[in-house]
Structures are given as C-alpha cells and as structure tokens.
Amino acid sequence: MAHEGHNALHDLLAVRGVTRRDFLKYCGSIAAALGLSETMAPQIAAALEGAPKLLPTLWLNGGSCSGCTESIAQVDSPDVATIVLDYLSTNYFETIMAAAGEQAEKQLSDTIAAGGYLVIYEGSVMTGQDGNTLLVAGKKGTEILSEAAAGAAAVIAVGSCAVDGGWVYGYPNPAEATGVQAWLNHEGITTPVVNLPSCPVNPEWIVAMVVQLLLVAGGDVATFVEKTEWLTRSYTDRKYGAVDLLMPKGIFGQSIHDNCPRRGHFENGEFVTEFGSKEEAMGYCLYKMGCKGPQTFTNCPIVRWNRRTSWCVEAGSPCIGCGGLNWVDNNAPFFHRLSDMQMGDALGNVQPGTVGAVVGGVAAAALVAHGLGMKAAGRVGDGPPMEEMKAYDRKRLAKKGGDK
Amino acid sequence: MGSHAHYREAHPLVFVITHWINLICMVMLAFSGFYIHFPFFSAGFMGVARGMHFVAMYVILINLVFRIVAAFFVKTANQLETREVDTDIKNWLPQAENKHQLVETLKYYLFFRKEGVISGKYGSLQKIAYLATVPLTFIQAYTGFAIYAPFADASFLAAGTTLVGGPMNMRIIHYFGMWVFILFTMVHAYLANIYNFAPSKIIFLWKETLPEGKH
User: Which of A67, A274, B34, B105 maximizes the CB count within 10 A of its CB?
Assistant: First the structure.
C-alpha cells in the first residue's frame, strides 16, 4: 500500500469517483471542525495531497463494541472521510482487516518494530483480573496497548471508552475498565494521547486531527501537540486516580447547548414534555426530556454526523451526554434533567429533586409541630418567662455556695 | 426573645433596605432557579428566568459585599431592648451575653427547659445561622458561575468542577445549595415571628414596638 508522492490522494479520490470540488467542500468542513476559516480549505487539500507518504497506523480495539469502527466504516457511497482515512496506511485493524491469524499479528509487530506510527485506540482498557479480561491472540490487551503506545508517535483515543473507560467504566465496572491516558500514566508511558470522547467517535474528528497533524505540523507530532489548541479536562479514575486529558479545543471547547439548533425554543420557554406530542412535532427544545446538552461539550451541532446529515438532537433525541466524562454514571437516567444520586444498595438511585422535596417537606412539618409545641408551652404572644441568670452561672454559684 | 421592645437602633434603615434586597433577590433566585431546573410552565419564560437569575445574582452579591463593609461602619444595637449602639460587626462576633448559652438555647427550643435564655441581640444559634448565610451565598455564586458557560472555563472554577466530578455534579450541588437557603428562610421566618410580629414590623416597615406604658 505504498502510495508514494504527490498523487497518492488524488488517485485514491479518482478511483472512488470523488470530484475535486467534493473534496474541497469536505476540506472546508474539516476547517470548521478545527476552528479555522473555510478559506483554509485549499491549504488543507494541499496538505493532504502533498503529504510525502502514508502514515502507518495501528487501529487497536480494547474492550469495545466496535461502534467507533462502525461509525467510520459504514459507507454506502464513496465517502471523503473514509478516503482521507485511507490515507492513513492502516496496517492493523482487527475488525476490518483482510489479514488474519499470524499474518495479522506479524503486521502489528513489524509496524511496532519500524516505529514512527500512529495508534488509534478504540474501546476501554480492560485491567480486571490482572488484565485477563481482554485477550487478543493469547496476549493481554493491556500489554498490546503498552507495547504499541510506547513506540508510537502519538495515540488517538477514539470514543468515550478509550478516553476514560466510557460506559464500560460505569458502576460497578467489574472488568475494571479504564481509559488509555490513565493506563499509560500507570505504565509510565509518556507518548502524547489525543482524546476524542463521545459514543461512538465522530469520524470527522479523527480526520480533523489527521489534517491538523499533516497541515499544521507537517507530520511532526511534537509540533502537532505544540501548535494545536488544547484544553485539559481532568477526572479521577476510581482505580488510577487523577488523570489529565488532552482534547482539541476546537472540538470540545463549547457546549452542545450553546450551538443547538433548538436553542431558540429553549430561550422562548418552548419545551417538549412528552414524546409523540404536538410540541415534539414542532421541534421544540428537549430540555425537559432530560437533554444533557447544557453540560456536554462537543461540536456535534456544527459538524453533525453521518456525513453531516443530522445528529441526535436534530433527529429528535435529547442529548445523553456521551461526550462527557464518566458519562453514564454522570447522566443516567437519560430522560431526567439531573442524574440520579447513587445512594448505595439500601436507598438505591434517587433524584436530587426528590431529596429536596422530602427534606423541605419534613422541615415544614417539623416547624408546624414545633409551632404547636410553642403554643402549648404558652410561649406564643408574650414569650417565655426569662431566666434571671444563665444556667452556667447558677450552677457555678451553687457550687461555690456548697463549698462554703 | 418574647415580647420585648424593638427599637430602630436594632436595625437601622440601611439594613432594613439590605434585608429587603436580600429577600427580593432570594425569591427571584429561587423562583427563576426552579424554573431553570425544570420549566414548570410554558409561557416563553426561559429567557426571562435566566435574565432574572443573573440580575438577582449580581445584585445579591453586591448587596452582600456592601453589607459586610457596612458592618464596620454602621452602628447598631447589639443588646436587646436598648437604644445604645456600637459598631455592627460586634453582632457578627461572639458576645459575652451568649457565652455558655448554646446548649441552653438548644434545650429551650427542644422543650427541655421552660425559661428563655439570656442572650445578646442575636442568640448563639441565631448568630451561627446568620453567619452561615455568608459563605453559603459565596458557595452558591461559585457553583453557579462554574455551570455558567461564559465563566465555566476559568481555571479557578474548572478546578472545582473537576473536584466534584463534572458539571452535572456541580449543578446538583448548586441545586441543593438553593434548598439549604429555602430551609434557612423557613426556619428564620418561623423563629423570628413565632412570638409576635414585632420583629417583622421593625425589619420590613421600620416600625418600632415600644415597651408597654411607653410612647
């Protein structure tokens, strides 16, 4: 698959029947995803076309449902994203590679031996039972990740599972799943990790990162890390402690709520209260249906999904916050405004609103009871008879008197 | 405690005004906050609710800062039934009159003793509750700003969001903070007016209640 030189991408596109115009349009949307002006499209195209050679890439699957693979691989027509991703010379890709068995594993070990490759990691890192919760070709998944990541130029953790364990990490997490960064910290591996959460990952984001690597950094990872605008999101892994995650700011810098096409209805106080209602048909805001857009930070409303066709909220579902961290525990139940508080086995999961109402109700009842008590004690009106001296002083005085 | 005289020196006009501002802001904040938490009617109100929440929030913060500064300059009574005044901050600090009285006050309210307890203008429990509203207001401001998009990225706020485990948890803390204020207001209004409405007359209408026989 050695597409050397200037025409490599051009040939790929031609073979797939993609016109240059389509390609430039696509580069424009990538520019938007990177927070650049669309006028940067030609430069992006040039960077992709001018890249000297394909970047060897390993796509590793950890504890994953392969949903992220589905997300990038489901194409029913020549898709520019797929073609650009073809531009990565994917030497190993468990779910879709043609090679199998020893041949496939040899591709993996050869690439690692050669160095200078990119690792795209999908799925959680399964550390449970000393790593035996995930075995590939007789080898622990955790070992494969450590080996591949140690020699890689960079790791792109795609999807929430790779970022922080995703839904696999959700309580009680019997497989002791964790994220790539947490695991690499634990192993002392300092290869830079780019985190692209959400379930599944949006293929445009991977492309955006590849473009950024080629365009801005000329393929040099150190420059890529230095030149890209990052934000650091931190969280505490239950097993591995505090973890700082590097995320591209252009993609994860703003809330879904702030870019939502239904935002006008939110401000107007026009809400869907029931699925199948008139309000839903009118495209009202899904806030009351539990939309987690206000506390979820991705550019889904701008980049959208399935080749920029639509995305969850546009398609009629409240955001369930899959682009956040520890997103299942933090956002379930998905159709409630606030997440449940996990109060242990005795109390189960409780909504904060219920807690507030119960505490408020009990307090009100207690005050009424107390007021009746005050009345019964004859304190209401003129108040109680006042003490002449503090109880403390009375006692002290009595003691003194006794001593005499 | 009970039906004693209430002089204007206990609550000078400036603090009657700050108390009104607090009350109005609290009501606006709680009402708009509940609406933002869960819009319980659909009448084009969300934009208004948020605007109301922000305005009331800034006003109550400015009011609180003013109130704290004023405590060092304005003179108020710090004993019951007196026109003698001293710097207001004395009311914020422990007082000789309240010494050894905290447990006695609790006993009194739990009906374990009959006689009312000696205290300063504010009893020990009362003082603790009033003082607690200061850090509580700042906590509400902090948690509120931490979930307010234009400020949420500031490192001082983002660090707190990380500490509590993300913006959803911060939202829940902010929500519970409001319940603490609701509980405070319930208990405060109840205890202030349980004997008679003289305390309300002075704090809201600035009307004195004189001891019997005096005019």
Answer: B105
